[in-house]
User: Fold this.
Amino acid sequence: MKILVVNAGSSSLKYQLFQLEDDKQDVLASGLCERIGIDGANISHETFEGKTFDLETDMPDHTIAVKLVIDALLSSEHGVLESLEEVNAVGHRVVHGGEKFADSVLIDDEVKAAIKECYPLAPLHNPANIMGIEACEKAMPGIKQVAVFDTAFHQTIPDQAYMYALPYELYEKHAIRRYGFHGTSHKYVSEQAYEMLGDQDAKIITLHLGNGSSIAAIDAGKSVDTSMGMTPLAGVPMGTRCGDIDPAIVTFLIDQENLSTQEVDNLMNKESGFLGVSGVSSDNRDIENAATQGNNRAELVSNMFAYSCKKYIGSYIAALNGVDALVFTAGIGENASTVRANICENLEYLGIKLDPEKNKIRSKDNLEISADDSKVKIFVIRTNEELKIALDTAQLV
Assistant:
């Protein structure tokens, strides 16, 4: 079965074509359309055989971008398909499904309408996701389309965890509640962890740490709490996002700095986090380098990040009534051994003990990095959201 996975942004479209056979999961081709609707638009394409294709061309909208993707996949020089009929389905990443979707779904008019209803909850993402869906429908008529939602995995969170203590009427009117994100990643790596543990009833805390970070508490495969909230702004400090703050800071900044609501939103989403505190960069690699060279603010933000992650681990152990495994994933979680060590430091009393030598190992495979006498397993598991989207899509069609 061949599944095309599409992740459409407002001016970009990422794609991967998977060949799924029994236990084999191969990427036949992948690529990126950039600067859609902007001068200097470009498509870059690569096959599993290492053939590459790069072209700067007019790309006024997502429909043209999808046509260029199809042309690349069918090309006699760098293509991997004889006919578009070989594609069994298209799986789309959709950021927000609100309360309507707890699983991936086949896309129809009703599903598209529900995705559009979530525009106010994800104004930067859902409209772009719809553009990608409708472009594929137009360019690939008759081929089934599937929506895989970032929020779906967290729909099992109980109401005492997802509700905010605001007037209940606001929840009823505007659906203001905790939704959580990175659900596809948390679900994928937790499934991998359950296989490594050999225990489907285990209690797991997954730490998706990257430029955007979120932490989830998972009990027997179900998400019961997560650090991001109604939007991806909440939780631990991130590359440019502030994470959890006193909400009164918003009105304070509006009054004291004479900022508009949009300017405060931009400050919290794009000028805060690692970048805002360190003044160096939003990239953790730059932060670590600066800290080793004596930059106090870079060291401060590293300490803030580890401390915040520790607090979530502690609170989620309480929520889960115990923990059997920690899982580190995503760009920082998979590659930054120093960050993992800082987060696990002094958690031995909770049964969490890292093996320093195992933690230094760099591998493309999933790793256990806990000490032999650690009561809690600690894993580094490489996330693969595109593969999870492909698998969900294949299962539905």
